[in-house]
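Proteins fold reproducibly. Next comes an illustrative record:
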Amino acid sequence: MIKIIDHLVITVENLENTKYFYCDLLGMTFEPFGEGRQALHFGAQKINLHIKGRELEPKAHVALPGTADLCFEISVPLEDAQKKLQGGGVEILEGPVKRTGASGTITSIYVRDPDLNLIELSVYDS
């Protein structure tokens, strides 16, 4: 029945910090939409952003910053992403390490976004 994930929602404390991490460091595009809503776009997907204390209804039962654990497949060599993140002041928590992605073996690094969500950045092994 399920075809794809169309979008997901994360709750954030500070919109500018979120935009810096996801747009400046990871290359997503910030797009406001509707009446006061915000989203991050990449490929054919998006992440809607709720600001803590101003979440939209309906929302997750526990909608708090730092409660997400997300994995993104990246389009650049992992080493390039690692250098860019470290140059932007982001600590690499773990990696590169081998993991299992949705379609096979991946190599990943782990970081935290400004809200302390766990972000896994991965490339599929050839």
Observations:
- The longest strand covers residues 104-112.
- The chain has one domain: 7-124.
- Helices lie at 15-25, 78-87.
- The first helix runs from residue 15 to 25.
